[in-house]
Write a structure and sequence with these properties.
Blueprint (H helix, E strand, L loop, with lengths): L2 H11 E3 L4 E3 L2 E3 L2 H14 L5 H19 L4 E3 L3
Helix pairs in contact: 1-3, 2-3
Amino acid sequence: MTIEEELIERMNNYQPSEATITDGCVTYHSTTRTHQSYAAQLKHAPDGSFVRKAYLKRCYEWLMLLKKNGIEMHHTIK
């Protein structure tokens, strides 16, 4: 599985526990809503586009932020 495929898998098939995270001057008041929003944006970005690459990078950074803050990911059934 490529890194891109793994990112898409994590964004689409997993949900974080609900929490509020502060990263520098940015506060994410709902980890689940932010995760859902980022996943939807990635899903609708055209393949091979600059926008998709930017969303992939943002999703990677988001997943790393969740991990850094000890937020558990839960597999969702779809």
